[in-house]
Amino acid sequence: MTSTAVNRTSVSDPAPPARNSRRVSPAALLAAGVFVLVLACFASVALGARPLSLDTVWHALTSPDAANGDHAVVLSRLPRTVMALLVGAALGLAGTALQGMTRNPLADPGIMGLNAGAAFAVVTAIYVFGVTSFTGYVWFALAGTALAALVVYSVAALGREGATPVKLALAGAALTAGLTSLLSAILVTSRQTLDTFRFWQVGTVSGRGWDVLVPLAPFLAAGAVILLASGRALNGLSLGDDVARGLGQRVNASRGIMAVGVVLLCGAATAAAGPIAFLGLVIPHLVRGLVGPDYRWILVLSAVLAPVLLLVSDVVGRLVLPPGEIPVGIMTAVIGAPVFIAIIRRRKLAEL
């Protein structure tokens, strides 16, 4: 993107210097991540109330037999696996971009109020307009996410210092609290809305078919392209706005473009799977600690490793309470909450 290019006569691609020489090779981590992701995908279609062998999974994917019950199970699990793959990549990318844009290591679609905005918009769609389909949720979720992002930034920008990392986090927390209160007020007055909403609210990738995936794919693809192309811009922003401007970067235009990508990914992912917390918070920190602060690699690796965490959480949720299952949104919170507490306790992570 030409708007995110830096001064071509001085520094062509600003990347913050590594703070620790003991890093993992990004290329090696990417190769390992792709390998683990493939294994996680196979596990997702093989494991569950009816476990299947990898050989059966392979034959079901390469030469499916409509009369074979095991093949039918594999094919029924395939949309769920693809959904977890896409939603995980979307939230990983969105969380990485939010942390880079705000220079706040605690930035996350849930913490910044984006999930709350999408959830409130979906409840409004159910309560006011009677929308009950996942394809109908996406437009309201996108609008709610965009409006929440605008409100958070506008509130944080008030005052002399502008939208600092701390003010953005506080504004996101305040908006989340306010929208959650309004959401609860609607739900306690409408049993029908509560019954429809509660299955979506916990965050899950089960029960989603190709009819949900296909309409969401364009939004997810557009958001992913925008953010994957923003690595250089995020490297410039990580040096500070003044330095980025000095290098020739148009800071406001870069943030605006990336905000569009974040809204597309968060809105579409939340509409499809419900609010899934901590995924966009934990994975970027893990990647940054392993490969350093170059956002060109952090974005790509987060898009690979976040689906791994989501797929593993989904598989574990199916296996711990057979024949039932724990929704993946609960499992990611169980895994992510301790990491979130550890991040808060490390004062040196107060800003990037």
Automatic annotation (TrEMBL):
Listed InterPro entries: ABC_BtuC-like, ABC_transptr_permease_BtuC
CDD domains listed in its UniProt record: TM_ABC_iron-siderophores_like (cd06550)
Transmembrane segments: 27-49, 110-130, 136-156, 168-189, 209-229, 257-283, 295-312, 324-344
This protein's record includes keyword Transmembrane helix: yes
Keywords: Cell membrane, Membrane, Transmembrane, Transmembrane helix, Transport
Protein's GO biological process: siderophore-iron import into cell
Compositionally biased region (Polar residues): 1-12
Segments of this protein annotated with the region Disordered: 1-21
Localisation per UniProt entry: Cell membrane
A molecular function GO annotation: transmembrane transporter activity
Topology class, membrane: Multi-pass membrane protein
Primary subcellular site in the record, as a coarse category: membrane
Keyword Mitochondrion: no
A cellular component annotation (GO) from this entry: plasma membrane
Family, as annotated: Belongs to the binding-protein-dependent transport system permease family. FecCD subfamily.
Protein name per its UniProtKB record: Iron ABC transporter permease
